[in-house]
Structure prediction request, 590 residues.
Amino acid sequence: MKPPRPNRYRTHWAGELRADDVGQHVRVAGWVHRRRDHGGLIFIDLRDRTGLLQLVFRPEEAPEAHEAAGRLRGEDVITVSGELVRRDESAINPELPTGEVEVVAAELEQLADAETPPFQIDEDDPVGEELRLRYRYLDLRKERMRDNVMLRHAVVKEIRDFLSDEGYLEIETPIMTRSTPEGARDFLVPSRLIPGSWYALPQSPQLFKQLLMIGGYERYFQIARCFRDEDFRADRQPEFTQLDMELAFVEEEDVHDVVDRLFQRVLAVVGIEVSIPLDRITYDEAMLRYGSDRPDRRLGLEIVDVTEIFRSSEFKVFSGAPVIRALKATGEFPRSRFDALTEKAQSLGAKGLAWAVVEDDGGWRSPIAKFLSEEEIARSNDALKAGPGDAVLLVADTPQVAARVLGALRPEVGQKPEGHDIFWVTEFPAFEWDEDQQRWDAAHHPFTSPSGDLDADPGTWRSRAYDVVFDGWELGSGSIRISDPAIQQKVFDVIGIGPDEAEKRFGFLLQALRYGAPPHGGVAFGIDRIVALLARASSIRDVIAFPKAASGADPLTGAPAPVDERQLKELGVKVTAQPPAPVADQGDPR
Ligand code: ASP
Prediction:
């Protein structure tokens, strides 16, 4: 950190003093991290953003400072001056960057008093989330949170530097806007000046970044806040941050190229080396081999299609099934483990799970062995590269169910993931069938360029969409966009947005597409998730300075909260919902 401008509070950052600085008269400021009284001497670990520094108060050299130090409590705010000295050899603390030095305090001034905090700042003991968020400013003082917040800054700075050097412009887009269909509910803001009308908070800057391409800006990015009103899902935030990008006159390869190099830089921030170009697999291949469109390939196991082997099997469950897919696993497989896996398979929609253990002679110990021929078993072993002692799990079902089930069983039976794996998944289906609504939904979003035969059944259309997957997490996704208004309307038609509705909701986009839209495409990445993975944080809440609790509420400010009757009146809004009963005050948490 750049040295501070010396003032009445400090001349140096506490955490940055080293043996080279010994002999200087320094002044440091910060919080009392810890105090220890040692036979007349008082030691204080002073904390500022840069770290900890030991201060020693000696009664005979500075009686006033010593006496004042004796009255200090944890988290009091002080400024102290004195000489920086080398510690006695025996007192050197190799764990601490400032561990070779200490300040012999000459003068102490207490700048603020601190009440006893509701949890320890100087220890990383588990603290309830509600309490942490309610006293977030204290939680933020902890070393782990400070490291996370600093890492987040470093990642975002790397992104900004890299993309600026590549010629990208950072351009802001509105927060108060119209609904963008990313598949979630909108947060709405009532307009006072245009009564009865509402702004929507953006689910993403999707349409604006496309308009920026039509506007001629060629290369855009934004560290963009997005808002999606979704039902509770673990580790989701109603507002979150994306790195949003868009490029004009490009195809998939161009987007992949810049993102590959960007990720190489960002991962290097935490010392992860990746070679580029990043690997790419198609959606179909991912579903076939891993049963997931964001597989953790580090688990090692791959799904094998064995349909052909059992095509004319005597075992009707197999010969009659649309597909049979299998997974080989190693390890201990007592009966109870198969039972648990079967239960899981059934909970995911499979009719059942067939299993076998390969015996020394290659035969199968399995409830279904008696229905299978030796040849079928031998060919399966070959296809799976299964040998004595290995377990085999088989699902006979539709391709979707087989993929879903075996994809979910991989983590249960695969090896412990080590190292890192980052790659692209490409060529997604264009639409997903929504059983409840009985209609097609855009698999990515409706502005994604479809590919394939657009006169054929929409279920066969592919899309020019792509995802980046890191260690089994989807970090982000994007696509080449539709730049032809006729195709845009064709996609709207498939998802049930007729020309009139399209005109009403997206008329501005359709019109813009008629004024010379370049081919364009882009991508967006979840910054919170990326930083959480790099920080090895267990929740994205640990890398957001002021997150909402899992319930969507903010225990610090009390948001969301009812507003004054007068405000509602001005807005012309009438509340019909009953506010929930107030949560009993937890009282003084100490
Ligand atoms: N707008 C998309 C999203 O938020 C990303 C993209 O297509 O660029 O997921």
Summary: Residues 191 and 439 are 33 Å apart (CA to CA). The two ends are 36 Å apart (CA to CA).
